[in-house]
Specification:
Layout: H1 9-31, H2 36-66, H3 74-86, H4 92-101, E1 103-106, E2 109-112, E3 134-137, E4 143-146, E5 151-152, H5 159-162, E6 164-166, E7 185-190, E8 203-204, E9 207-208, H6 212-216, E10 217-219, H7 239-254, E11 256-260, E12 265-266, E13 285-286, H8 303-314, E14 319-323, H9 326-336, E15 380-381, E16 384-385, E17 392-399, E18 405-408, E19 424-427, E20 437-439, E21 441-445
Parallel strand pairs: 17-20
Antiparallel strand pairs: 1-2, 3-4, 5-6, 6-7, 7-11, 8-9, 10-17, 11-21, 12-13, 14-21, 15-16, 17-18, 18-19
């Protein structure tokens, strides 16, 4: 008998059920929340986000290296977003979000581009700065802050060589000097590394002085000398203490300060113990025979008071004037420390100032008008005159005992070897009865806008 073979209905049903289960599993694996396609889409989004983030970081790095103001400008941001959109790395909606908020979230990444900001108007050579302080970038990319009311003197716009500002916008380096009408002039001293803004030993007789003056003397203002980021401007501080705190903070925030291009002078033509209106002008009669102050503790009646009143007397509103602090003098020394003295082979200007200022070998032991060139050539370094000689200059350094104030630089009747530009010496603060006693003002920016 023939045997009939075939599938039963039950077996068919079971087969169909198994096939349906397998199909469901396959569909879930492919299309489910954690399915292959969704995971692939998530990976695609994450890869896109990583690429956009990388492009953004690269753009920021290049912007910081190339941009003079280090700001997000409309042009650079547009160029980046155009590139990302053209490569389908951004949607139109995402681009609009970036332009509105400065950031975008792609997948798990939140990417910060920064909002477009208007470019900061920069100071221009020969044009008086108005409407607030303005940054200036020279041809080498170096930066300075030009205070409101001042003008960069044409011919002195290179920061590394000594950028000069004047309160008279008609001043130029090329024109003949008129000490009556020319403006008061100052030189920008860059402080690129604020951690190095500290007092250091100077030279005497061609060698470093002992550390006595540095260790035993401090800046006035309760001997305020911050380290690193330890700057505080106390609301309770007054007088010199407050001035010192504000000066340090201004230097840190603005990357430098201004020092008088010339020693403090007066437009009076002759005399000793001059007490006329102070100026900081070329070939002015040196304001000499002046004490540091009239008493040890009350800082009036001397160089401290005259220097402080200078800015107010001139009507400046963007800067504060002070007597030069020791730390500021030493910042100038670090700025000048690579300059060779061609008159003394193997010696730097800061350790032996022979032939680079008014000293006993060329001065006839007489005080010269500030900014007067010596017979052998110019009497300036980094566009600053008379730091090496002419008169000793009071600073804000004071011995901790309070009995001595510190002079910096050489003088007209001393040796350039023993008294180079970086030397320290000292005297009683009330002394000022010899013509070797003078001073130099400095300016610090009142507000840190940049």
């Amino acid at each position: 008998m023939r045997k009939n073979e075939g599938i039963t209905l039950i077996a068919l049903v079971i087969t169909i059920i198994v096939l349906l289960i397998l199909a469901g599993v396959s569909i879930a694996t492919l299309l489910g929340q954690n399915g292959i396609l969704n995971q692939a889409e998530k990976a695609k989004v994450e890869n896109r986000g990583a690429t956009v983030e990388e492009e953004c970081n690269l753009w920021k790095t290049n912007k910081k290296m190339d941009s003079q103001t280090a700001q997000v400008t409309a042009q650079t941001l547009k160029e980046l977003l155009d590139s990302l959109e053209e490569r389908n790395l951004l949607t139109a909606e995402e681009r609009a979000t970036i332009e509105e908020t400065g950031e975008i979230t792609i997948g798990s990444r939140t990417i910060e581009f920064g909002k477009e900001t208007p470019p900061v108007e920069q100071a221009k050579v020969g044009v008086k700065v108005t409407d607030g302080n303005k940054p200036y970038i020279d041809a080498d990319g170096d930066k300075a802050i030009i205070p409101e009311g001042f003008t960069i003197v044409p011919g002195c716009e290179d920061i590394s060589e000594g950028l000069v500002i004047s309160d008279n916008d008609q001043d130029t380096e090329a024109e003949p000097i008129d000490k009556v009408t020319d403006g008061n002039q100052f030189v920008w001293v860059p402080v690129e590394n604020f951690n190095e803004f500290e007092r250091t030993a100077g030279y005497e007789d061609g060698a470093l002085q002992s550390c006595e003056f540095v260790s035993n003397a401090r800046e006035r203002g309760k001997y305020y000398e911050p380290k690193g980021d330890g700057i505080t401007v106390s609301e309770e501080a007054t007088g010199t203490e407050k001035e010192a705190q504000e000066m340090y903070k201004s230097v840190k925030d603005n990357g430098g300060f201004y020092i008088g291009r010339y020693e403090a002078g007066t437009t009076e033509t002759s005399g000793t113990g001059i007490r006329g209106t102070m100026v900081c002008k070329k070939e002015a009669t040196v304001y000499n025979c002046i004490g540091w102050a009239s008493t040890n503790d009350i800082e009036t009646g001397g160089a401290v008071q005259v220097a402080r009143e200078f800015a107010q007397n001139q009507g400046y509103t963007s800067v504060t004037s002070t007597l030069c602090y020791g730390v500021q003098w030493d910042a100038v020394m670090r700025w000048m420390n690579k300059i060779d003295n061609q008159n003394v082979p193997g010696k730097k200007y800061i350790e032996d100032s022979t032939g680079m200022g008014w000293h006993e070998d060329n001065s006839n032991r007489q005080v010269k008008n500030t900014g007067t060139d010596i017979e052998s050539g110019e009497n300036k370094v980094k566009n600053i005159y008379d730091m090496a000689g002419n008169v000793e200059e009071w600073t804000m350094e004071a011995e901790s005992s309070g009995s001595t104030r510190v002079f910096r630089g050489g003088y007209y009747s001393g040796s350039a070897v023993n008294y180079p530009v970086s030397v320290r010496s000292g005297d009683s603060p009330t002394e000022g009865n010899t013509s070797i006693d003078g001073f130099r003002p400095t300016l610090y920016i009142c507000t840190a806008e940049f």
